[in-house]
User: What shape does this take?
Amino acid sequence: MSINTKKYIEKYIKIRDKAGKIIDLKINQGQQKLYDAIKKQSDEHKPIRVIVLKARQIGFSTLTESIIFKNTATKFNVNAGIITHKEEATTNLFNMSKRMYDNLPSEMKPSLKRSNAKELIFDNDEGTGLKSKIKCMTAGSSGVGRSDTFNYLHISELAFWGNSAKETTIGLFQAVPNLPNTMIVIESTANGFDYFKELWDMAVKGESDFVPVFVGWNELDDYKMPYNGFELTDYEKDLQKVYNLSLDQLTWRRWCIKNNCSGDEQLFKQEYPINPHEAFISSGTCVFDKEIVINRLERLTRPIKVGYFAYDYDDTKLQGQKISNIRWVNDKNGYIELYEVADSNQTYCIGGDTAGEGSDWFTGHVLNAKTGKQVARLRHQMDEDLYVRQMYCLGYYYHYKYIKKNKITPALICIESNFSSYPNKELVRIGYPNLFVREKEDRFTGVMDKSYGFKTTSVTRPIIIAELVKIVRENVELINDKLTLEEMLTFVRNEKGRPEAQQGAHDDLVIGLAISYYARSQVVFDTEPITIEQVFNFDIEKHIDNDYGEEIIVI
Assistant: This one.
């Protein structure tokens, strides 16, 4: 994108305003945010890849079309593709491009070789045959866009493309070379947990080259009305504090809820989100209080450490612990987050959910057993034995001293055992001494038998979820993990009333956290202060590394 693109747009591009008048396009605050993201990648000579999460009436589609039009109308041999979710939208965007052409000064107009209901084809004055084209398409037809090669691609309202969204989009991606001076802009309003949400999450996590752009309603100057002296609710006061809202902005918010959203505050949040979490509001009846969860998400701080544990493993020992020399490794791409370092004066417990039927992730949560505060989280797709060893290391990192037995005791571990008993059996085999024990009745003898781990049943599942719902409602500040809170937003009641992840979402972290809180019932609080040096009988480096460097710290 040349440095003159913005000047070209604001000088030559005409659009139709809400009143039907043809006016100059003046880039607003929200559009400027998208323009800056595009320009930054262009200036760095990178392929331009942007994904936009939209609120209503910001004008992202208009800006994207104007950039595509400028680059197509002023260059030779350039192909641009615009694809929308329905025929009406395709026609509207084509008409927008045609209007931009019709209202150009005559000296700025390229020769129009052909114009029909779906294409604008420009020729140059020299007749060299190096034509440029804007092609508008509608998603849904088989193989749409696959036979084309595009320099610029605008994918509009992807969240509403239906079941073919992923297949169609992947095909379109192949049509754009991974070269500088190419551009893909995906923009959509949210529609629950779908393929667009997957792409958005990947961009936010830095797992793709797409740059995420979101603009909340509070970032636009138009969304203000004169304050009329009403008394603010507690929630409005909270919003004002978190987002630095003016009274005029809160006045507009009240007006919009009442007049544009039929008094439905939840509908307002979907149509005019103030943060991405509100935009992706779950489509079912959420089990957790979404307002509380979203507010907590907005207040989270970074984990103090990200990484994993290294260790020595000796499988030749017939008895005793087979894991030793446990070490923490800082790794910004690691799968364990620490929110508090271990404190031997505290008592900890760990709960986990295993990958199994309907589940993709191994998870683990460490709680301060006295306060209930979440101090660490594990989430990864790995082999069961490697998951067990990481849980083992977490347990020994968050250890305490059990006075009655006068020995060091690692954190209590409680792992779900429905789909596999291997993790609990393996912890026993490698010598982990502090496991959650449940009692069950022998069907033949009637004697109560003891087994390790948590069993999720039609009786226990509602109990642990109800307890977690209560904790979120009353003490959400205890929960520090972003991914867990995001899972809560898509944890809904299905048609039969059963709480579970909505289709396409996950609940591994939610269930793991619920198990963790349940496990607190077996934690022994008879402890006394002890230093970590006493546990491992040698000195360690004592500092908290906030830069996520590749540093190894021996515990």
